[in-house]
Amino acid sequence: MKFKDRLKDPAHPSVAVIGLGYVGLPLALEFVGGGCRVAGIDVDPEKPRLIAEKKSYLKHIPSSRIAEAVDTGRLDCTTDFSAMEKCDAIIICVPTPLGVSREPDLSYVTGTGEEVTRYLQPGQLVVLESTTYPGTTREVLVPILEQSGMKAGEDFFVAFSPEREDPGNKHFNTRTIPKLVGALTREGAEAAEMVYSLAVDEVVKVGSPEVAEMAKITENTYRAVNIALVNELKMLATRMGVDIWEVISAASTKPFGYTPFYPGPGLGGHCIPIDPFYLTWKAHQFGMPTRFIELAGEVNTAMPEFVVSTVVRSLNEYEKSVKGSRILILGMAYKPDIDDIRETPALKVMDGLLELGAKVDYNDPYVGSIGETRQTHRRPVSVQLTEGSLAEYDCAVIVTDHSCYDYQWIVDNSSLIIDTRNACSSVKEGREKIVKA
Ligand SMILES: NC(=O)c1ccc[n+]([C@@H]2O[C@H](COP(=O)([O-])OP(=O)(O)OC[C@H]3O[C@@H](n4cnc5c(N)ncnc54)[C@H](O)[C@@H]3O)[C@@H](O)[C@H]2O)c1
Questions:
Q1: Residues near ligand 1 (Cβ within 6 A)
Q2: pTM value?
Q3: Average pLDDT of the residues in 333-346
């Protein structure tokens, strides 16, 4: 059967988006914007409830966008998986974390696959979007779906399409980022292209799910390795008394053959610290170590410790010990202008300082509170920033360079600033108080 033959209304297919998080929610909104009817499905009942109330639960998505989508009458969110039964396409956007030994944890994907199998209909398109190692769609998802008694590629279509979501990016969004699709069959690729064309401007078909799966991990590994390189150069430059940010800016004047990457306090988020290890795990099955990836992981993992040791050394210059010092972390999210704290290096810096006996608070306009850290059983809340409160800290550590911070004001009112992002680059007064890390 051809996919387009099963569509009741080819101009307005219906799509089920499973997992309404950082990836699934914006995707669901784009499908609604493209004229589709969307069933949003999540195991967390809070998400459908908030969407029905036209409220956003992600800081970078305004509630007005949710309201606009709900008001079309084409967005229905639920915890009831049977909602996918009537849809033309089923798109899976559930988490793919690492297990305790840094092995892929595909339990969310397999659990969702089992739910899809219960409701799968002939002619439907199933797309996996969760980032994973090459082979997952064919070797893990398809066998589960085929427990329905139907054959993938014949009775229903299967594709992998990696999410390239970059929350908070001011230049690109879900619609404008080209979408890769790799399907089991040519018909599957055409079906995926037809569906995604309603939500994104450009669909790029590739030859197989494995190419699409590996392309996504290649993109993230490229970033992880280049960030590790520049982090290592930063540590060397610091010892040599050279400003790495000035070096990068100088190297960036070369119009070819150089792409700038920037050092930082360590990796964060759901992608770059995690995805390369999916590939490492798979590579072991082929008897092949992935040395670049492991080395990059080692260097990047050491960065929060580098920040902590810079705080210790800088306090020492002021004849203060870190033990008993009051330290303020600025920015808890893993990157600017979002509220996501998954894998954030700020927590690792915080734990490192607490372990040494510092009294640590944090401020983040996007992150009101955080759970317990390894070193403390209290649940820290973001403190208010005032001239008076800043002055009470022995040191402020800029971990995340939110654009709403007034860095000159922060420097004016602090006694010592450790800047891990070159956030104070345009600060004119008080530069002697800034230490780059
Ligand atoms: N966050 C990003 O910027 C980003 C970018 C590219 C790719 N990815 C990848 O996309 C995937 C999803 O990431 P995310 O950031 O959206 O995660 P998320 O944690 O923000 O959202 C996942 C959602 O899935 C729901 N969920 C969990 N298990 C479920 C199940 N069995 N059935 C239905 N819903 C379920 C959760 O309640 C949550 O709402 C991951 O593989 C991730 O690596 C994320």
A1: 18-24, 41-44, 47, 93-96, 108, 111-112, 130-131, 163, 165, 167, 270-271
A2: 0.90
A3: 92
